[in-house]
Amino acid sequence: MRLVCPSCGATASAAAWTNDTAIRYTFDALVQLPSPVLRQALAYLGLFRQGTKALPWQRALVIARSLNELVAEDSVHWQGGETRPINAEIWGKAIEATIASGPKGLRNHNYLRKCAWDLAADLAAKMENKREEQRRNICRPEDAADPTALSDETRKTIEDMKKKLGVK
Question: Mind listing the pLDDT tens digit for each residue in 123-168?
């Protein structure tokens, strides 16, 4: 397979692009991303270019590895807010939203983390509603036996105790 550099027009085989260890490790890190994130990953890496300069592969490697660590977590936290649960689909949507908003020259994943935290609000609300429903189902009074209803054996035992103690 022959690849063409979009900047200079140079053509080389796909294998030639992976001769550089930083490029190879960057692609290794990218392919480990969940598919909703992987679809947007290259465009997201482009947001880290500074000005008109190309993104160095060493920097791309650092970004790809830190992105991998970020999306591997099952929760996201943003500046003093609550920690919200998150999944790969939300991370994918957050990357898509980040790309759509078009920030240039990103230095870290904070913009992405903020987008993900905002999008995770729905998932957090759904999970909270599910927990509340489970809690209500456990403590449902109509499902519990009537605490004033006693079995015949218990009533007989109480009556026997009353007779022994002389209580009416």
Answer: 888 888 888 888 888 755 554 555 566 778 888 888 888 888 887 6
CA distance 45 to 68: 12
CA–CA separation, 8 vs 145, rounded Å? 78
- Reported for 86-90, long-range contacts at CB under 8 A and 24+ positions apart, including other chains, are 86/116, 86/120, 86/123, 87/123, 88/34, 88/35, 88/36, 88/37, 89/36, 90/116, 90/119, 90/120, 90/123
As a whole number of angstroms, the distance between CA 34 and CA 11 comes to: 30
Q: Please tell me the pTM assigned to this model.
A: 0.70
